[in-house]
Design a protein that fits this description.
The complex is a heterodimer of chains A (about 350) and B (about 270). Chain A has about 350 residues and is α+β, with helices and mostly antiparallel strands. Chain A has three helices and 13 strands, in the order ββββαβαββββββββα. The N and C termini of chain A lie far apart (about 45 Å). Helices cover about 15% and strands about 25% of the residues of chain B. Chain B contains five helices and nine strands; from the N terminus they run αβαααββββββββα. Classes of the chains: A alpha+beta (about 350), B alpha+beta (about 270).
Chain lengths: ~350, ~270
């Protein structure tokens, strides 16, 4: 990736930075105009939908350079200073960043593609940041340690599959089968650039959330109804929503034992909160709780930035040559091994 | 009992012709159903809807027939049904008509529905599973229980499709009480039903959703594809609201049910 110096404009809105990238024709141009944080920011009031609900609608990206978990060397440091953050952004743009910044596919050591061609070029991407050192909030900033019973549960599952990883499609991960891709799982966690778009459309009594990855769509009722009965389980659980002031709160239970978000089990209880804090920013928070997996609940906060569409159709299963090639490759390898004997 | 003509409501001097005239006038004056409005003043199509016919088996009328899996007996047969095609005929071009026959003869192996592929338009509207309309001013999102299929109908100024897709690109507008959706750029691999009715990449569909009562819509779709059909043709059917309490779409990512059929031949043989 060619080195570029880019103009970085940081606008602080209710404590959230939105980094916009200008694309200057001339290299060597560097300017930084960071607005000072307003001492007493008035809480922003979102516009309302015609039926009086906070209007969360639009197309957003959850792109960010903030890593999911906090790098160990940062300890309990939850926020960068403005200066530290500006420096971090500069290094991120130049591809010079370690675990403190999540470049995903743009990580120079992991480059497999021409980043510009495939739209992975981070220098062209809008993203939001709240100067956090990790998406997971709190003094630890990491997923809590797994309880022994969860470790055993996950180890047993891996052990059952050991030596059988390529026997059939049933032994492959859900993502490879195009049943649930990682980036469409809830809670929504950003991946490497592509597929990070989310579109929200609100109708009377429902909020629909469409994640571009695998066209994953949730239509969430906001009428205070109960969850479906306990015996009915879904990969993405059962979500019911309610409004608390300007925040959409979504409560999800009824996961299967294959949902396994971060190694959790079917008792996972997820609470997501969606709050629009500026015209072009929505703050997405989640709290994950599973007493059979973690000793305590843990939370993360991810700023979403309004962006242009379109949201493309991601038809994973319809084009899934990957799993066919993987299984066929395994059968060919077995044949070859058998012939050698 | 004798009834004098002058005792009727018909003005004196008008006979049978007059009766017919009055009847016609009375019909013309009956207003079409006017749906309740959304907060932004549009006919309210929000809700969970489902077709209650055999269109997904065969758009044309058909008697009952045995299904492809004899061991399932009467559980899985082709049920009888009247057609939804106006004029009954689907106007295939000669070469296309031959291909339809081939599709139909081998439908269980060829039908993209069996693979849990995205169903396309208009088939998604009459699959035997519910779908949900989430209506806002700028966009109408239609979410389908089958395969988590979805499309977003743009209600602003029409936009151009960035490329082909299985569920097509939808631009919508209001025409009185009717939502009109213009769908283009549809992937050619979808079918219209389990009877092998198909199309090319030139397919263009214009849908009309018209409320006909509090809990029913009339769904019409005009289908145009000059590579396959000699003229445009039209289907129409009612759609019914799912009125049970707490009605909702349930997760039905049917991929795992199609995998054995699609990848079973790649399973490791025992003893290898």
């Amino acid at each position: 990736m060619s080195r570029r110096s880019l103009a970085l404009t940081a606008v602080l809105a209710a404590g959230v930075l939105v980094a916009l990238v200008a694309q200057p024709p001339v290299a060597g141009q560097t300017s930084s105009a960071a607005a000072k944080p307003q001492a007493a920011a008035k809480p922003w009031t979102p516009p309302r939908t015609p039926d009086g609900r906070p209007d969360l609608q639009g197309i957003y990206t959850d792109n960010t350079v903030t890593p999911f978990q906090r790098p160990k060397n940062l300890g309990t440091k939850e926020f960068y200073t403005e200066q530290e953050f500006a420096e971090l952004m500069k290094r991120a743009r130049q591809g010079d960043i370690g675990e403190e910044g999540n470049l995903g596919a743009a990580n120079p050591q992991e480059v497999r593609y021409d980043l510009e061609l495939y739209g992975f070029d981070r220098s062209r991407v809008r993203f939001g940041s709240n100067r956090r050192t990790s998406l997971i909030v709190g003094p630890e900033g990491v997923v809590p340690p797994m309880l022994p019973e969860a470790r055993k549960r996950n180890a047993d599952r891996a052990a059952r599959n050991k030596g059988h990883e390529f026997d059939s499609h049933e032994n492959r991960p859900l993502s490879e089968r195009c049943i649930i891709l990682n980036q469409e799982r809830i809670p929504l966690i950003p991946g490497a650039n592509e597929g990070n778009l989310v579109q929200i459309v609100q109708g009377a009594g429902y909020v629909s959330i469409l994640r571009e990855t695998n066209h994953s769509t949730r239509v969430i009722p906001t009428d205070g109804r109960p969850h479906v009965p306990k015996n009915i389980r879904f990969y993405q659980g059962d979500s019911v929503g309610r409004w608390e002031g300007n925040t959409l709160v979504v409560d999800t239970t009824n996961f299967t034992n294959l949902s396994a978000f971060q190694g959790s089990g079917e008792n996972l209880h997820l609470v997501e909160r969606f709050t629009r804090v500026a015209d072009d920013t929505l703050v997405y928070e989640f709290t994950a709780e599973d007493p059979t997996t973690w000793a305590r609940p843990w939370s993360a906060e991810i700023p979403w930035t309004r962006t242009r569409g379109p949201v493309y159709e991601w038809a994973c299963h319809e084009g899934n040559n990957m799993i066919v090639n993987i299984l066929r490759g395994a059968r060919v390898a077995e044949q070859n091994a058998a012939q050698k004997r | 009992m004798r009834t004098r003509l002058s005792d009727s409501l018909i003005p004196g001097g008008l006979a049978v012709g007059g009766l017919v005239l009055v009847a016609t006038l009375a019909t013309a004056q009956t207003p079409a159903y006017r749906a309740p409005r959304t907060a932004d003043g549009r006919p309210n199509l929000n809700g969970i809807w489902q077709a209650l016919n055999t269109a997904n088996w065969d758009l044309q009328g058909h008697a009952a027939a045995k299904g492809p899996v004899p061991s399932l007996g009467a559980v899985f047969v082709v049920p009888p049904g009247l057609g939804v095609v106006e004029g009954e005929e689907i106007p295939y071009l000669p070469a296309a008509a031959a291909r339809k026959k081939e599709n139909q003869a081998n439908w269980a192996a060829l039908d993209p529905e069996a693979k849990c592929y995205l169903p396309g338009v208009p088939r998604a509207a009459y699959l035997p599973y519910p779908f949900q309309i989430v209506q806002s001013s700028q966009n109408i999102l239609i979410s389908h229980q089958f395969a988590n299929a979805v499309r977003v109908v743009n209600m602003g100024a029409p936009t151009k499709a960035p490329g082909d897709s299985w569920m097509g690109w939808s631009n919508g507008r209001w025409d009185g009480e009717t939502l009109v959706v213009d769908v283009t750029s549809l992937d050619e691999r979808t079918w219209f039903d389990r009877a092998g009715n198909f199309h090319s990449d030139a397919l263009h569909v214009v849908e009309r959703y018209t409320p006909r009562s509090a809990d029913t819509l009339t769904y019409e779709a005009t289908i145009e594809d000059p590579k396959v059909f000699s003229r445009p043709w039209k289907i129409s059917m009612p759609l019914y609201r799912r009125v049970e309490r707490d009605a909702r779409l349930l997760e039905f990512r049917c991929v795992e049910f199609a995998e054995e059929m699609m990848y079973g031949n790649l399973r490791k043989k025992p003893g290898n």
